[in-house]
Structure to design on (451 residues):
């Protein structure tokens, strides 16, 4: 998502990442029945680092073994006593096994049994050169001497790219998939509630992928186009939304309707920066986001209407259309009002409804539920950088049965309130509760559940 896409993963890369996890489980001898079976059935006295698949082995087994080539470049052995690492066939030497260099010659030369461990070369944390060592292997000995050893723990295989040395599916995914540059606007595009077709057009506009005449021109399918809306300048996505006299006038009118005066802005990133600097309250950001997406959608629609239907809309009617669609969406969002002069101006200009906050204090008492009932008090929360929910389950005496609080992905506050209620129901079911009384402070959530 952060690279500007829709979060859809290439199945080929995903398979490669998942196979890598299987390989890792086998390499670290994870305590699972499947890993034990693999070792007993296929690997036996060898290691996963040296075993070769047979011609008739299954495809998945061949794939798991093939992961070795890229995994061995990312792993590292931390050697303490040297009692876990196979001297010839584990890749402890800068990601390589001794067998890769010498075939089986080293084992033959020193008459080493197959399962000889690395402590054959070290004693009490010091490398000790074996007798009968060959002069031609002195370079190898130099390399070995530089590897730090010592300590009393078992040797460890660690995943180099991860901070904690542990490999997981997300870690292998990071390694195998082809990354492109992060886009600064991705979170901003997706984080607000929006009419889906408006959101989709906004996303394509940010990606510069709207199917405009400019894109057809890039593919040599049409002559160099001039702007459909102003007929004065060469067309491009950037011109359409930030330079075209028609769109800048329309966007200026929309902004002045909601009481915003500011100089013209020339790119999506500057628009986001301005928005983040100017509005500190989430509800203002959401309203502005709806206005941007709705305007972009209507400008794009107007462009197409002009090309395909040869019709144009008068500017005032066009601005009214944008304001009408924005109003419908904002009213659907059931946003909570806050004390802000900017918000007051927006409310007047757009004629939107927000959930009012009562400023009068009111005493509220917590009441115990009836006998044989459990009461759940739930709440969702959303701040500028965090989101989550909390809940308490109590019995008819007011005794706490269970409590839970968790951070979640950012979403609308109503979603988080509903999530808190759902979680309280799940926990109550898990506890075998027959009668549950749920309390929540969100009128919208209660309305959605009870209507
Ligand atoms: Zn233009």
């Amino acid at each position: 998502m952060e690279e500007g896409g829709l979060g859809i993963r290439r199945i080929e890369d995903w398979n490669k990442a998942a196979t890598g996890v299987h390989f890792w489980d086998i390499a670290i001898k994870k305590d699972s029945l499947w890993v034990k079976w693999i070792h007993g059935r296929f690997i036996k006295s060898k290691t996963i680092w040296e075993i070769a698949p047979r011609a008739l082995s299954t495809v998945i087994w061949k794939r798991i073994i093939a992961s070795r080539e890229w995994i061995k470049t990312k792993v590292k052995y931390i050697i303490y006593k040297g009692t876990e690492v196979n001297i010839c066939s584990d890749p402890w030497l800068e990601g390589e096994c001794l067998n890769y260099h010498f075939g089986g010659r080293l084992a033959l030369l020193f008459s080493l049994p197959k399962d000889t461990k690395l402590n054959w070369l070290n004693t009490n944390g010091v490398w000790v050169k074996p007798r009968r060592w060959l002069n031609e292997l002195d370079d190898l000995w130099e390399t070995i001497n530089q590897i730090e050893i010592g300590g009393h723990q078992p040797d460890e295989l660690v995943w180099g790219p991860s901070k904690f040395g542990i490999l997981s599916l997300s870690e292998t995914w990071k390694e195998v998939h082809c990354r492109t540059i992060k886009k600064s606007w991705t979170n901003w595009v997706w984080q607000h509630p929006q009419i889906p077709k408006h959101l989709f057009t906004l996303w394509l506009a940010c990606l510069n992928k709207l199917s405009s005449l400019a894109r057809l021109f890039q593919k040599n399918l049409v002559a160099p186009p001039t702007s459909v809306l102003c007929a004065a300048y060469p067309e491009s996505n950037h011109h359409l939304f930030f330079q075209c006299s028609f769109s800048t006038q329309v966007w200026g009118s929309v902004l002045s309707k909601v009481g915003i005066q500011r100089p013209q802005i020339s790119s999506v990133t500057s628009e986001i920066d301005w928005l983040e600097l100017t509005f500190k309250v989430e509800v203002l950001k959401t309203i502005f986001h709806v206005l941007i997406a709705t305007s972009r959608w209507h400008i794009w629609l107007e462009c197409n209407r002009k090309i395909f239907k040869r019709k144009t809309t008068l500017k005032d009617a066009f601005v009214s259309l944008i304001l009408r669609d924005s109003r419908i969406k904002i009213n659907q969002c059931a946003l909570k009002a806050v004390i802000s002069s900017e918000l007051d101006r927006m409310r007047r200009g757009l004629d939107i409804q927000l959930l009012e906050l009562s400023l009068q204090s009111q005493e509220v008492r917590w009441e115990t539920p009836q006998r044989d009932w459990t009461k759940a008090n739930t709440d969702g929360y959303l701040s500028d950088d965090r989101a989550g929910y909390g809940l308490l389950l109590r019995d008819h005496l007011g005794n706490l049965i269970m409590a839970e609080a968790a951070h979640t992905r950012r979403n609308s506050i109503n979603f988080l309130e509903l999530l808190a209620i759902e979680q309280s129901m799940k926990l109550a079911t898990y506890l075998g509760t027959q009668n549950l009384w749920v309390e929540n402070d969100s009128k919208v959530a209660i309305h959605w559940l009870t209507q």
